[in-house]
Design brief:
Elements (H helix, E strand, L loop, with lengths): L1 H22 L2 H24 L3 H20 L4 H28 L2 H24 L6 H4 L2
Length: 142
């Protein structure tokens, strides 16, 4: 009985996320990427505290994937100019630091990367508020 209830809850959560992604504008999608990476890092820290090595590794890997294949991949290197180049380098730095955090089981490094993501997330949020969240796909890819 509980397994079917858990499956239903899981399916409902997936539908909610998928619906949110489908209805989100490019600016909102980037915000969702920042939030997903930060959530994965929060779970990684929890797994570190509980000495759950495999789960910690999965959450750090998830954060790396979001940063590398989501945030970094969304950069428009042509339109973004120097800012895009600097963000690309920062994303590379974050993924490297998370690899080190995973190997060393170091929550301070996870906190460092989370702080960087938090600053970028806040700035991206302010850009959306400043522009009335009406951005073109080209602007959102910067």
């Amino acid at each position: 009985m509980f397994a079917s209830t858990n499956n239903a809850i899981s399916a409902y959560q997936r539908v909610g996320v998928e619906t949110g992604v489908e209805s989100a504008d490019p600016h909102k999608l980037i915000l969702m990427l920042f939030e997903g990476a930060q959530e994965a890092l929060a779970k990684a820290r929890m797994h570190m505290r509980h000495h759950e090595v495999a789960e910690k590794g999965q959450m750090i890997s998830k954060a790396i994937m979001i940063i590398d294949h989501g945030l970094k991949a969304s950069l428009d290197m042509n339109a973004g100019g120097d800012l895009a180049i600097k963000l690309q380098a920062l994303y590379d730095y974050m993924t490297h630091r998370l690899l080190v955090a995973n190997i060393q089981n170091n929550p301070e490094i996870v906190n460092e990367v989370n702080g960087l993501l938090s600053e970028l997330h806040g700035a991206w949020k302010e850009i959306g508020e400043f522009n009335g969240t009406q951005m073109s796909i080209k602007e959102a890819a910067i």
